[in-house]
Every structure is written in structure tokens, then in C-alpha cells.
Amino acid sequence: MHLDDRLLLIDRTPDRPARALQRGAERGELVRIAPGAYLRAAAWSTADSIERHRLLMQAHAARHPGAIFTHRSAAIAHGLPMVKVPPRPEVLQPSSRRSSSTPGVLRRTVRQVDEPVRIGMMLVVPMQRTLIDLAAALPLREALVPLDAHRRDGGQEHELLELLGSRSLRGSRCAERSIAFADGRSANAGESLSRGTMIDLGFPLPDLQVAVRGLPYETDFAWPAHRRRGEFDGFAKYADPRFTGTRAPAEVVVAEKRREDAIRSATGDRFVRWTWNEALAVHPLRRALLGAGLPQGRALLRPQR
Q: What is the rounded average pLDDT of the residues 10-15?
């Protein structure tokens, strides 16, 4: 990840001195995204939250080349999915160092510092350390999103637990719990967020990507003991050409309805569906699961294997 050529940095754009950049911002042509860093307003307005965060990280790294990005910023640099993007880059501050203040960043104090890796122009906490930091710091339902992605890519639970055991880390018990619940069968961030929410709400732990006997289908979630199946309805399912092909959204909706009817007829199982916003807001997903007849108990502390 090299410096994005859209970034205009004071002292790095000789044809645009500081005052010219400031005037551009005053006219609304540029946006000052960080101290000494500007971007064309149109480029900033069309960038999504992940892209904006990467630009903020690069702007900070250009002015502070020794900065080490950690936690959610490190996850973004490693390409891990996140539920929430931090408002400012998160940078490492060893607990032995006196607290300092740098505009435009969030400082994370840690007891032990791992040797960083370089990703393009940036120094970043290594992948596995990033994962245990997130597992310790984030709620389970958010931590499962990057942890599941790591497992999908072949990461192993024992590797993270061994690293966790060798570090003095606040929140290590929370980290152990999140790592234990990670499951590479979860297909995307929405399914991970949904499953983590179910766990914390005390619903039965679902089986994942469950095939339908006699049909070329599988469902995101299933509770065989309760004769229930669940589907996370992400926007991509109905709008992303990678999944819809040449079909119009209406055609995709009809096909999905026929698929659900076929599964229901073949299994007799009841269906429940929800969206990203419902999982994120928690209570709408709870209402949907209760409405489907799933029982709610105490939050699970460990997966039952």
C-alpha cells in the first residue's frame, strides 16, 4: 500500500504550497482530512468508510513514519473485515512511554509490543497479534467478524491461543471466548455479526452452511433440533453483479422465494430472515428469532462441542 496519489500533502506537493491547499479547502474544492493532508472534495465524498480510513492512515504515516498502526487500523491494513471503522487511525503507544498527544489519531496503550510488519509505507502490528488484540478489546459479535475471516483463510485456533498465552494482555478471558467461538464456515461479515449476536443473546448455537437433502441448496444457519433455518439477507445477494449475474433485482427476489419454498417443502423447517441493520441493532434480530419460535436462554460462555 503505497502513498495514494490523490493525497495532497504539505511539503510533498511543490506545485501546491500550503496556502494554495488551504485556499482550495476554503473554496470547497479540497477537504483537509488530517493535519497537513488534503484530498479533492469529490474523491472524499465518494470514498466509503474503509477507503477513507486507509487515506487517513497514509496521511498520518507520511508525517509520522515511525508510527505503528494497531487494533482496527491494523485489521484494515491486513484486509480483515470490520463491523465499525474507527473515526481516526489507531496507533500504538507502549505502556512504558509517557502519554503523548498527536492530533488526528487514537492512541492504544499496550504492555508488550510485537515487532511490526511493513505494509507498503506503513508499519502495522502483525496479523495474529492484531486478532488477539481485537478479541480482547471488542464485543464478541464484533470480534467474530475478523476472527471468522481469519479461520476462513486457514488460520488456526491453537495458534492464536498460544500467542495469547505468551502475552500479558488486558481482556485475555474475553479474547479466549471470542477465539473459541470463531468458525471459518461463516461466509461473510453479516453472518459472523449475526452469530455473535445470537450467542450473546442466549439463543441456541446454530449449525452453519447446512445442506438440504435432495436439493442443490444450503442455508446460512440451521437449528435441526428446533426445525428452523435462518438466512442473512445481505445487500450483495440482490444487487452485486458477482452474485446476481445478468438478472434484475426483481428476478433475484423471485428466485430466492422459490428456493425458500422448495427448502420448506422438502424439510418442513420454518424460515427466519434478517438484514445487516437488524443484526447490528440487536433487538430486531432478537424479535425475529423469538418470532420464529427459537428459545432464548443465557449467553453462551463456551461453544458446546
A: 74
